[in-house]
Design brief:
The structure holds two protein chains of two kinds.
Chain A: H1 2-14, H2 16-25, H3 32-35, H4 38-67, H5 70-74, H6 79-82, H7 88-121, H8 136-162, H9 167-190, H10 200-226, H11 230-260, E1 272-275, E2 281-287, E3 295-301, E4 307-310, E5 313-315, E6 318-319, E7 322-324, E8 330-336, E9 345-351, E10 360-366, E11 372-375, E12 381-386, E13 389-394, E14 400-405, E15 411-420, E16 423-431, E17 437-445, E18 450-457, E19 463-465, E20 471-475, E21 482-486, E22 492-496, E23 502-507, E24 513-519, E25 522-528, E26 540-542, E27 547-548, E28 563-567, E29 570-577, E30 587-592, E31 598-600, E32 607-608, H12 614-617, E33 622-624, E34 628-632, E35 639-644
Antiparallel strand pairs in A: 1-2, 2-3, 3-4, 5-6, 7-8, 8-9, 9-10, 11-12, 12-13, 13-14, 15-16, 16-17, 17-18, 19-20, 20-21, 21-22, 23-24, 24-25, 25-26, 27-29, 28-29, 29-30, 30-31, 32-33, 33-34, 34-35
Helix pairs in contact in A: 1-7, 2-7, 4-7, 4-8, 7-8, 7-10, 8-10, 8-11, 9-11, 10-11
Chain B: H1 3-13, H2 26-48, E1 52-61, E2 64-74, E3 79-84, H3 90-97, E4 105-110, E5 113-114, H4 119-122, E6 126-129, H5 141-148, H6 157-167, H7 180-193, E7 198-202, H8 210-227, E8 230-234, H9 238-244, E9 247-252, E10 255-261, H10 262-268, E11 270-274, E12 290-296, E13 299-304, H11 309-317, E14 325-328, H12 331-339, E15 348-349
Parallel strand pairs in B: 3-8, 3-9, 6-7, 7-8, 12-15
Antiparallel strand pairs in B: 1-2, 1-4, 4-5, 9-10, 11-13, 11-14, 12-13
The chains are: A alpha+beta, B alpha/beta.
């Protein structure tokens, strides 16, 4: 330490002229009010003072950094220090530390006259008008930038002064490291681990920090081990910097590769799971280990465990749309064509029935990734909803069959369904002038490319389309009641209400209508026909007192659940006990529609994997017991493990 | 041996000062003897470890070998003149000895420790005067002394200032504004003020005028007389170094071609004149290892590297050596004969004569 102190003292004393001149230069901004009177003059003075301080500081850091070791090395004066009982570390830290201290101090001393003037002018309260520029973040940047500038200038100074052949390594190293880092950044952006465009400030801060550490280590190695030998010093400087830079860049590339080359079981959790018809393939997505908001998506073949990385994960908890063909042989999803978040959307297809098949981009490109994809019954056509735009394409050729742009933004949830290969039905929510919600029904004829408006129904978001797309069940209309409508005519088929009870209705996969009535006496589920009529002998289930079963989210309730028809005869429901707090474990029950009665699936803690909608989960809901992916035979209650699973953790289900 | 007997033996050896018997008790004498014995042992150990040694030091710059497996060792108190033509590798060797440059092979040892690895601690005992004065140009001599003072355990401010006074160097002028001679004097004053055990000087009088050179060497002689410091001096100033060096080494082409006591060197390197060149065959002096020969009207002058008094008398008595005379050489002549242009100038015509 004695040696370090001696070198520091000596080097600072050598630059005393700079430190003496700085406050003198700092007097210049005091002349600003002479050119501009009033508060504008005062502001101008402060801005000038800050600019002068920063410029002086930066320039000093640049010049001192370039000369404090480099000049001595080139003129062989560095040997003076190495002829003394001084460690190389003391020489290095003393010289470069003194350069940084002088650069900082010069800036601060240049600020001093304005600061003192302001303190006097403001009655001695010591305030500084441009406090925003003197706030901690800016000061931290300033204080961080000075040593970084010193180190960069030192590196440049040594290179330029020694002019040895190691300059080639410097250039090659810089190009290689830059290329690796850029390539890695592009890969991370491509796979969604980094937003694109990435926020500049954190990347610059991380990059500057990494470069600073490498420069610090390289300069230390150069002075400590290179000593007074300029060529050896340059060689050590270049080798250390290029070596560290390369090691850092490779470490970054390896880390990025670890983030990118993950499998479905590496996900922190599964926040999206959809099973393909046939149950051989599952689409999975969820937050992945790595940067914040990084999400990854996969298609997993359950039998072999083979997985294919797909880019339909938008962020950690958000996905782009995905659809399976009805025969389960094809998966289609949307992904960004280039930059994640800003580039056009392209549809990607994966042949699920071909071993080793990889995702193939279709020719279908939209201005942005669609929000919804719907495959035609035969899987030859696809409808894509993007913003206000609906387009139908022939999947293999990418030929546009029909398109329509609505005048207003399609409100969520827009419902799109193929009635057959040539006809598309669209249900679009919109707010009426009266403030009520309405549901507009359209048919798009793909042959004539004509869009026909069929009806406008008094129906809000809480709705469910019948499987044949001919009827819709509307909930909360009026409040606590439900209604069924015929879409073609707009005729109301039935109004479903029960005195003293809250009623919700949903179409099941077989076209029947399930009606939930929740009243003081308990909750009752009744299965009606498609038109909302009560046929004789209709199944009716009464849930035990204290239990509730709800269809959709109900604002006035603190719990919600889903109901899924698994086949024509069974209904899957989750039972939530009212007296249990949110987050308590729940059990799943199967309501036997044919024979009546309820079967508990047990054990407690089974979680139905999302998405939970009737159509999305289809006939094969998947569960996770926290460790395994399970398919449960609802007829027998037997659980079949499909493979290891990641636990699904969502606050409202947990 | 009893402590008293031990002390008596040390006294007899002249290793300890005499004390009046009245102030010495037997116990105190015993403790003193033990201390002195330890001191003596330490001194012996110190003497056994050469202050400076080079073990097969090799320095390369690219493909060029500047120093080629040079080995040497200096005992305590030696004044060693390292001689060599420009580019012979002296400065490279000196940098290696100072731990400033890492040799490609071999080791430099100072006081028995590796100079490269232990440079910082070793430099506390080493004074250095470089070829080109390397002190920061903006610092005055006074500030340089202030910088050095806390670094050396035996720093002697009075000696530093006294030397500068003697040299007539202003202490308040920046180093860069001093003359070349003054800069050299400051460098010597800095080196000596640390009271070093070893002094390494790399051509310290390069560029100095005759007066400055003389002052420089006088100061060095004073230091040697006062403290018996071990010195290695690489120099071209052969006349001056001849007065103080007791050993010399010559570097040629990176190799140490000579490493010898100066007295012995001057004893064996002589010039021999033969008045009648025709009477003496060219091989007449082969037994004396001739280095160079000059033939003139006045006869033949041959510089030999293996002169021997007895053999020379025998040679004089022979027909070939009739009238032969012998003369001594100064260090410069020896150096030129050993390393000079035309390294094998065994025959050249000269206009000079016997000196």
């Amino acid at each position: 330490m004695r040696g370090l102190a001696a070198v520091l003292r000596h080097e600072i004393a050598e630059r005393r002229l700079l430190l003496l001149a700085s406050p003198v230069l700092g007097l210049l901004p005091l002349a600003a009010p002479l050119t501009s009177a009033g508060s504008a003059g005062s502001e101008l003075r402060d801005i000038e003072a800050l600019f002068l301080a920063l410029a002086l500081s930066g320039l000093s850091a640049l010049l001192l950094g370039a000369s404090v070791v480099g000049a001595d090395l080139a003129s062989r004066r560095l040997a003076f220090f190495f002829s003394r009982p001084l460690t190389g570390g003391a020489v290095w830290a003393g010289k470069l530390g003194a350069a940084a201290i002088c650069a900082w101090t010069a800036g601060l001393l240049a600020l001093l006259p304005s600061r003192l003037f302001d303190a006097t002018a403001n009655g001695g309260d010591g305030s500084f008008p441009n406090h925003a520029l003197l706030s901690w973040p800016w000061l931290a940047i300033w204080f961080g930038a000075v040593p970084l500038t010193v180190l960069i200038a030192h590196h440049g100074g040594v290179i330029l002064r020694t002019r040895s052949a190691w300059l080639v390594l410097d250039l090659a190293g810089a190009v290689t490291v830059g290329a690796i880092v850029l390539w890695t950044l592009r890969r991370l952006q491509y796979w969604g681990a980094l937003p694109d465009p990435s926020p500049v400030a954190p990347l610059v801060a991380i990059g500057a920090g990494a470069v600073g550490i490498a420069l610090l280590a390289a300069s230390a190695a150069q002075v400590i081990d290179g000593r007074a030998d300029p060529v050896r010093g340059h060689r050590i400087l270049s080798l250390t910097f290029a070596g560290l830079g390369l090691a850092g860049a490779l470490a970054f590339a390896v880390l990025a590769q670890r983030w990118i080359a993950i499998g479905p079981l590496d996900l922190d959790r599964w926040s999206f799971a959809a099973v393909a018809p046939g149950q051989r393939w599952i689409a999975l997505a969820g937050p992945a280990p790595g940067p914040r908001e990084y999400g990854a998506a996969f298609l997993l073949e359950v039998g072999s465990g083979r997985s294919v990385r797909a880019r339909f994960a938008k962020r950690a908890e958000d996905t782009l749309p995905l659809a399976f063909s009805a025969d389960g042989r094809r998966a289609i999803w949307a992904e960004y064509q280039g930059r994640q978040g800003t580039s056009p959307g392209v549809l990607v297809s994966l042949a699920l029935d071909r071993a080793g098949a990889m995702p193939v981009r279709t020719p279908i490109v939209e201005a942005a990734p669609p929000a919804k994809l719907v495959l035609s019954p035969h899987g030859a056509r696809i409808a894509a909803v993007t913003g206000r735009h609906v387009a139908v394409y022939e999947l293999d050729s990418g030929r546009l069959l029909a398109a329509h742009t609505f005048g207003e933004a399609l409100d969520w949830p827009v419902t799109v369904v193929f009635r057959d290969e040539d006809h598309l039905r669209l249900l679009v929510s919109r707010d009426e002038v009266s403030g009520e919600q309405a549901l507009a029904v359209y048919d798009l004829d793909l042959a004539s490319r004509r869009l026909a408006g069929l009806a406008t129904l008094p129906c809000g978001w809480l709705r469910m389309l019948s499987p044949d797309a001919e009827r819709v069940a509307c909930n909360n209309r009026p409040p606590k009641a439900a209604a069924a409508f015929d879409l073609a005519s707009g005729r109301q088929l039935a109004e479903l209400r029960q005195p003293g009870a809250k009623v919700r209705a949903a179409y099941l996969a077989d076209g029947r209508l399930a009606l939930l009535a929740q009243g003081p006496a308990g909750t009752e589920v009744t299965i009606l026909d498609g038109d909302g009529r009560l046929p004789p002998g209709a199944p009716r289930f009464r849930l035990p007192p204290g239990a509730t079963l709800v269809w959709f989210w109900m604002p006035e309730e603190d719990t919600f659940s889903w109901i899924v028809q698994t086949d024509a005869h069974r209904l899957l429901a989750r039972e939530i006990l009212r007296d249990r707090p949110l987050g308590a474990r729940t059990s799943w029950n199967v309501l036997d529609l044919a024979r009546g009665g309820t079967r508990s699936l047990g054990p407690d803690g089974l979680r139905l994997l999302p998405p939970w909608g009737v159509t999305a989960a289809g006939s094969a809901p998947l569960f996770s017991d926290g460790a395994r992916l399970l398919r449960i035979d609802l007829a027998t209650g037997e659980a079949h493990a499909l493979g290891p699973a990641r636990p699904y953790r969502a606050p409202y289900v947990e | 041996m009893s402590p008293t007997a031990a002390h008596a033996s040390l006294l007899a050896a002249g290793a300890v000062p005499h004390f009046p018997p009245a102030v010495r008790s037997d116990a105190a004498a015993g403790a003193l003897a033990a201390d002195l014995a330890r001191t003596d042992a330490a001194a012996e150990a110190r003497a056994a470890v050469p202050p400076l040694a080079a073990a097969a030091i090799t320095v390369r710059y690219g493909r060029r070998t500047a120093v080629d497996a040079v080995s040497l060792a200096l005992s305590e108190g030696t004044v060693y003149a390292l001689l060599g033509r420009n580019g012979a590798g002296k400065s490279s060797l000196v940098r290696c000895l100072l731990g400033q440059q890492r040799p490609a092979a071999g080791r430099a040892l100072l006081f028995g420790r590796d100079a490269w690895r232990h440079r910082a601690s070793l430099m506390a005992q080493v004074g250095v005067v470089p070829e080109q004065p390397d002190a920061p140009p903006g610092a005055t001599a006074r500030r340089l002394a202030r910088f050095c003072r806390p670094l050396y355990p035996h720093w002697d401010d009075a000696a530093f200032e006294g030397r500068l006074r003697r040299f007539g160097v202003p202490t308040d002028l920046p180093f860069g504004r001093l003359s070349r001679g003054q800069q050299g004097h400051v460098a010597l004053a800095l080196a000596l003020a640390a009271r070093p055990r070893l002094l390494i000087l790399d051509d310290p009088t390069l560029g100095l005028d005759a007066v400055a050179r003389r002052a420089f060497f006088e100061e060095l002689i004073d230091e040697l007389a006062d403290r018996g410091t071990t010195v290695l001096i690489a120099t071209h100033d052969l006349a001056a170094i001849e007065r103080i060096a007791d050993r010399a080494g010559i570097l040629a082409g990176g190799r140490l071609v000579l490493d010898e006591d100066l007295e012995g060197l001057k004893q064996r390197c002589r010039r021999i004149w033969l008045a009648d060149a025709a009477a003496a065959p060219a091989t007449a002096l082969d037994g004396f290892a001739p280095l160079a020969r000059v033939t003139g009207d006045w006869g033949v002058e041959t510089i030999v590297a293996a002169y021997d008094e007895e053999r020379f008398r025998a040679f004089q008595d022979s027909a070939a050596g009739a009238g032969a005379r012998v003369g001594s050489l100064d260090l410069e002549e020896i150096f030129i004969a050993l390393t000079g242009a035309g390294a094998d100038p065994l025959e050249s015509a000269g206009a000079g004569g016997p000196r």
